[in-house]
Amino acid sequence: MQNRFGIKDFVFLVVLLATLGSVWLSMVQKTRMELAQQGMSAKLADIEQQVAQVNRKLESGAGVARGTTASPSAANGVSTDETWARPGVKVEHWAAPHCAIDPSTIPGFAVGGEFTELFEAQPAKLTPYISSDVYSTRVLDRVCESLSSFDPKTLRLVGALADGWQIDPDGLWIRAHINPRARFSDGKPVTSEDIRWTYMDFINNPLIEAERTRSTQDNLKDVKVVDGLTVDFI
C-alpha cells in the first residue's frame, strides 16, 4: 500500500519542529543567562575586592585626618574603651586576632576563594559542641571562633571575639566585651545575646547531646546580657 503524507502528518511535523525549536531557544537563553550571571559574579567579586581594600585602609588608620595621632594601643588595634566595665576591677584589653604576616601586603592578594583539605575519613557530625572526632574539630577550628583562644607560642589565654574582659578577684564572675567588628559569615554582627544563647539555650539544654562540653561548666550558673556587646558569666 502506498504511504500518503496527510494533514495529520503535517500537523505532527509542525508540532515536532515547534517543540524542537522551543527547546533550542530555551537552551540558548539559558546559556546566555549563565554567561550574564558569570559576568555579574565577576563584577561583584571585583567590587568586593575594592570594598575590602577600603575597609583595610580604614582599619589600619589610613583614613585618619592629617595632623592627628593615635594612641599606641589604638595603633596596635587594641580598644581602650572601658565604658562597659565594672568600676574598680582591672580590664584586660586584646587586639583582634591577626596573622604574623599581613596577607593583604602580598602581591596578588584577593579576598574570598576556597580552601581545600583532604581527610582520611568522613566526619560524623560538624555541629559545634556536639561533634567529637578529630576531623570535625579540625573543620570547626577553621570556621568557628570563641570569645578567647590560646596563643600558640605563649599558651596564654587571649581574646578572639572578645576585645577585653574583667575577672572578679574573688572568682565569682567574668565580664567580657565583644569586639564591635566581630561578624558572622553572612555579615551580621555578633551580639551578647548570641553568647548567652550559645551557653544557656544550646550547651546547657539537656535535650541536646552536648554532654562533653556541658560537663566542663558545672561552676557556670548563668550568663547575663549587660548590653549589646557585653556579657556576664556568673
Question: What descriptive keywords fit this protein?
Answer:
234 residues, 7 strands, Dipeptide-binding Protein, domain 1, five-stranded antiparallel β-sheet, alpha+beta, 5 helices, single chain, 2 domains
Describe this entry's structure for a reader:
The chain has helices spanning 7-59, 72-75, 134-143, 192-203, 211-214, and strands spanning 92-93, 148-150, 157-159, 162-167, 174-178, 223-227, 230-233. It has 234 residues and is of the alpha+beta class. The protein has two domains: 1-69; 72-97 and 145-233, Dipeptide-binding Protein, domain 1, CATH 3.90.76.10. The strands form two sheets. A five-stranded antiparallel sheet has the order 1-4-5-7-6, with helices on one face. A two-stranded antiparallel ribbon has the order 2-3. β2 (148-150) and β3 form a beta hairpin. The radius of gyration is 28 Å and the shape is elongated. Mean pLDDT is 83; it is low at 62-75.
Strand order of the largest sheet: 1-4-5-7-6
Quaternary class: single chain
Tell me the overall shape.
Answer: elongated
Element pattern in H and E: HHEHEEEEHHEE
Measured by DSSP, the beta-strand proportion falls in: 5-15%
CATH topology of the largest domain: Dipeptide-binding Protein, domain 1
Number of domains: 2
- CATH class bucket of the largest domain: Alpha Beta
N-to-C terminal Cα separation, in Å? 97 Å
Q: What percentage of residues falls in helices of 4 or more residues? A: 25-40%
Cα radius of gyration in angstroms = 28 Å
The total of beta strands comes to 7
User: What class do helices, strands and sheet pairing give?
Assistant: alpha+beta
Under CATH, the homologous superfamily of the largest domain reads Dipeptide-binding Protein, Domain 1
Major sheet attributes: 5 strands, antiparallel
Average per-residue pLDDT, rounded, comes to: 83
* CATH architecture designation of the largest domain: Alpha-Beta Complex
Tally of DSSP helical segments:
5
Q: Would you identify the regions where 5 or more consecutive residues have pLDDT less than 50? A: 62-75
